[in-house]
Each structure stands twice: as structure tokens, then as C-alpha cells.
Amino acid sequence: MCCGHLMRWVDDRDRSLLTRNGWITFTRGYYHCPCCGRGAAPADDACQVPPGRASWPVREGVAMLGAWVPFREVAQVYAHLTGHAISHTSAEDWTETLGAAYVPPTLDRYAPGPVVDTLFLQADGVMVQFLDGWHEVKVVVCWGRKDGEDLPPRYLTAHGVSWEELTEQIAALARQMGVRQAGEVVCMADGALPIWALFRRLFPQARHLLDWFHLQEHLATVARLLPEGAAWHEAQKAALAERGPAETRAALVALATAPPDPADALQQAAQKCLNYLEANADRLDYPTARALGLPIGTGRIESACRHVVQQRCKQPGMRWKPEHLDWVLGARCAYLNNDWALAVKQMIAKAATAAKAA
User: Fold this and answer.
1) Are 88 and 51 a contacting pair, CB within 8 Å?
2) Consecutive H or E run containing 184
3) 206: helix, coil or strand?
4) Structural domain boundaries in the chain
5) How far is C-alpha 20 from the geometric centre of its chain's CA atoms?
6) Among the CATH numbers 1.10.150, 3.40.390, 1.10.287, 3.30.420, which is that of 106-210+297-317?
7) How far apart are CA 14 and CA 29, in angstroms?
8) What is the band of 3 on the pLDDT scale with cuts at 50, 70, 90?
9) Phi, psi (deg, nearest 5) at residue 140
10) What is the CB neighbour count within 10 angstroms for residue 87?
11) Which of 28, 30, 116, 154 could form a Cys-Cys staple with 13, CB 3.0–4.6 A?
12) pTM for the full model?
């Protein structure tokens, strides 16, 4: 049926398609609509034959390569592995089509979700060069721990939005990973206030921890200006890890106020570090975190920024259009979140919907 009219058979027509086993040619009936003049081969839709000259499995395989290496390299690698040539524009189109179709699964609003002992969330941003300059890509990683074992993480990326605007997506990610039944929730980040404002609102009862290494960078800046800076820094590390922030705060206050000389570089550095410490005063309980076997560093999110974004999107000479970056990162997240099969189904379903609407 087309336009409410029965289509008329015209003839049998051949079609060639690149499959994982090479090129095949098959014959199917071709029909014509006397009302709108549209021609179609209904068997193509029934057999899920995509438009163009490559099968869905070929497109899926190429898209998987495109999620990891630049598109020109995809064409070279695919030709080397299979003996069949594809263009780099096809690699780009198929990768981005899958990434654009990918929608992460969401837990029903009333479902309890998985059971985990501890749920971890970490967030950070990484700069990527677009055609109009550098922009921040926001990255979130979430994983659970059960019976002492860390479970596989899930990732979320976004750009062009504030942390506030990611509220629903991060809440959905946490639900998917077990926040409703978690014995404890642990949120970690550097000193970025918008991230902490979001974590505080979404997870007010969670344990909030400032990244240990960002704090040490601030302390190291002060230590470099002291005659016995290395020993001073080691003393602060031991105090923070074993007894909390009180001793380090007192040491910074002493450096920032005696002798009173606002132009002194040491005083300025100490005051800046003291401000950082006090702005994160409720996120410095490292002794308890260590006693519970919790991480005190944001290594997972630092690794995620490199692994999810930088390794693919910050290679030499790369400049991105916003939507293209979104689609490539969508394909990467689909793979890393173990949602690849879901993304492929979503891609095929989206194509079928578009074909019906055409």
C-alpha cells in the first residue's frame, strides 16, 4: 500500500549489497504507486535491507571502528581486514548514524534497580577544539561496588549545557546503576563549584569527597615557596590522611597571616590554598574514607576523560562541529556502556521509521 492505493508490480530488479561475506546480488519485486508515482521494493523493508549498498552488519562493524579511530583510518583498516573498499565518508556517516540513534536505557521510575553496597559518581570536564575554538565536554562516570568488587562503569558525556542542565541525565544514570538500593553513595570531583552544587542537590545524603590530588597540587604550590617545602608538604599529607584537615588549616593560617605582608608571594599562595580548603571543608574526611576502603582520588574520571573523549577527539588537527562530536561520543559511550547491541537496534529502528515517513 502507498498513499492508500495498491502498488502495481513493475518487474523484478537486481540489487547488489556489501555483506560481511562480500558482495551479493539478489532479485526482488519492484512496485509502482499510480497515485504518487513512488517506486519501492517492499521486500527490502521486510528483510531489513538498509538504503545504500552496505548491509547493517557491515555498517555496524565500520561504526565500531569509527568509534575508536579517525574515519580515514577506518577505511584503510576495513579494506585491509576484509579486502573490500569503503570510503571515509561512509565510515563517518555510519558511525555518526549509530551514535545519533543511541539512547541509553532508563530504569522505570518505580523500579528499585540493582543492589550495590556502594555507588560511586565522579564528574569532570575536558576541553575539545571545535571549529570556533575550545569548548568543555562534561564527563560523568558511575559504578557500583558489591561484595568488595567494583562493577563495570557507565559513562555520560555532554557539551553546550551547564551542569545544572544535566540533572535529569545524571539522576537517570544513578538510578540505572543502583542508587535506590545502595548502602552508601560517594560523590567525588575537583573543586568545581557547579559540580558540587549538582551533587549536593541530587545526592544530599551522599559522602562527598574532594579529589586528593587536586588538593595536593594546591599544597605543593605553597610548599615550593618554603625552605623546607618537601618536608612541610609531607607533613600535611600525613595529617590530612590520618587526622583530617584541622592541622593543615592551622598551618596555612599561620603562613597566610605572619608576618602580615599582603605582597608576599608565600602569603598569597597560602591564602589561596586556605580559601580552597575552606571552600571544600565538608569534603575532606579522608581518614574515614580510607578506613572504609573508599578511593580518595578521582582517577576514574581522569581516566574517563582521556579514554572516552581525548583519545578519539583530541588527535592532531582535529576540529569538530558540535553535532558530529555528539554522535561520535554517542557511539563510544554505547560501546563502553555495553549497550552496543541496543544502539544497533535503535539505529535500525530509526532508519525504518524514517523510511516510512518518507
Assistant:
1) no
2) strand 184-189
3) coil
4) 8-104+318-357, 106-210+297-317, 212-282
5) 30
6) 3.30.420
7) 9
8) low
9) -130, 135
10) 12
11) 30
12) 0.89
